[in-house]
Amino acid sequence: MSERPVFPKDFLWGASTSAYQIEGGAEADGRAPSIWDSFCKLKGRVDNGESGDVACDHYHRMPEDVELMAALGLRAYRFSVSWPRVLPRGRGAPNEKGLDFYDRLIDRLLEKNIEPWLCLYHWDLPQALQDMGGWTVRDGAGWFADYAALCARRYGDRVKRWATFNEFSVFTLFGWAFGWGAPSIADRASHLKAIHHVNLAHGAGVDTLRALVPGASIGAVHSVQPMRPETDRPEDVEAAALFDEHWNRAFPDAQLLAHYPRRIAEAIEPYVQPGDMARIARPLDWFGLNHYAPVYGRRDDSLIWGFGFGSPPAGMKRTAIDWPYDPGCFRDTLIDLTRRYRLPIYVTENGYGTKAAEAPDAEGRVADPERLAYLQAYIAAMAEAKARGADVRGYFVWSLLDNFEWGGGYGTRFGIVHVDFKTQARTPKDSARWYADLIRGG
Ligand code: IFM
Fold it and tell me: Is residue 7 part of a domain?
């Protein structure tokens, strides 16, 4: 596929990152630990015992990184604020130096005509709040609203695009049900409470932003990866149906249709108080879609809900990290979401991960033909979806930089810009050059 798909002039092209994955500066200027700092200290939980302590050192190299974005011609940049950097105890006294970092980032982006898209929560809950019960307590919604108010008052004069959370279902499932991510809990009641309280926090955050940021355009970022049963055995089909509710429906249905999907609704009832669904389902301006691949679900009794990850069909094309490669699924997802939730969609993440080193060659070129082909195919699929009625308005590649890939440490690279983690040198890969050309011509 070499022909370039055509998008309207105002289609928004950007890149996404998140605080814990790129900033480093874990103890700089008064930042306190998040649940991910704590998780990384647990033995054997992150590949090679790595952590986000230094990551891409973006906290100290931010001006250089904004120059890089400008050189690529990005029109928008989605980043997240580190809650424990601006509110080390999670609530109470703010950290002026931490707040100042995002002031400087936002000002530089605006100087370069790059629209800042601010996401309040990309998984790094302050450890101090986790120590008080974190998302398993209803107070979490109020803590989040206060944090949103701090950011809204500080940045709302310059930032108009706000997202409450990134991938609600992924961080609650991995952190509170599978136990494979921070805070490493695997308990049904804790998971259900976390789902409901995060939904309440989202609703409270939306109200806060709406009240404090004139002209705010507010959304939430969902991971939607259509669920397919590994086999047609009834136990796999039923397990995949419950997995689907958890991964793809528990948050967007609650927030946009004001109800939980059927199976979850029953289980979560003890934690839902009268009026809660109205508190959660606040009007939104856009739907943030993070999409990578369909997921194959199967019965797995070793996990608390009895569902787990199955294998894609033998022979199915996969990426270098074994994720299914299915641009048609991306196209169909965009069309289905437009019909289901009736909001403009921004693709807030999509990209290609590999475990290959992808180091610069003697001429300083980083060849990443597989990522480039993936982006071409997925962007072409997005054009097709748009032609078939999907209301998609923008695309943010994941990710600007190679970064800390959670449990995978630094071994998995998603960046269109290569990072040498020894020297912190940045080198745009071939995919970045291609993306820059696309933006210029788009
Ligand atoms: O790196 C993550 C990101 O933090 C959330 N979405 C998926 C990406 C790739 O795994």
Answer: no
pLDDT in tens, 88-107: 999 999 999 999 999 999 99
Q: Which domain holds residue 398?
A: 12-441
- C-alpha span between 133 and 127 (Å, rounded): 10
Distance (Å, rounded) from C-alpha 258 to C-alpha 311? 33
Query: Is 395 within any annotated ligand binding site?
Result: no
Atom 1 (ligand 1) nearest CA: 405
Q: Tell me whether residue 46 is in a domain.
A: yes
Residue of 23, 50, 245, 349 marked catalytic: 349
Contacts of 301 (CB under 8 A, 6+ apart): none
Per the structure block, which two tokens stand in for 156? 């709302």
Please name the helix (run of DSSP H) or strand (run of DSSP E) that holds residue 237, with its range, or none.
helix 234-244
Dist. CA 436–CA 74, nearest whole Å: 8
Query: Whose CA is closest to 55, among 105, 10, 17, 12?
Result: 17
Q: What is the CATH number of the domain that holds 32?
A: 3.20.20.80
Domains in the chain: how many in total?
1
pTM: 0.98
CA distance 395 to 14: 6
Which of 78, 167, 291 gets mutated to test ligand 1 (max ligand atoms within 8 A of its CB)? 167
Residue 166 annotated as binding?
yes
Cβ atoms of 395 and 350 within 8 Å: the answer is yes
Let me know: does 50 contact 410? Beta carbons within 8 Å.
yes
If one residue of 399, 403, 410, 416 were mutated to test the ligand 1 pocket, choosing by the most ligand atoms within 8 A of its CB, it would be 399
Give tens-digit pLDDT for 296-323. Answer: 999 999 999 999 999 999 999 999 999 9
Nearest 5°: CA angle at 357, between 356 and 360? 130
* Pocket flag, ligand 1, residue 245 (CB < 6 Å): no
Residue 304 counted as domain residue: yes
